[in-house]
Amino acid sequence: QVQLQESGPGLVKPSQTLSLTCTVSGVSISSGGYYWTWIRQHPGKGLERIGYIYYSGRTYQNPSLKSRVTISVDMAKNQFSLKLNSVTAADTAVYYCARDRGILLDGYYYGMDIWGQGTTVTVSS
Amino acid sequence: EIVLTQSPGTLSLSPGERATLSCRASQSVSSTFLAWYQQKPGQAPRLLIYGASRRATGIPDRFSGSGSGTDFTLTISRLEPEDFAVYYCQQYGGSALFTFGTGTKVDIK
Question: Quick one: pLDDT at residue B94?
Answer without folding.
Answer: 77
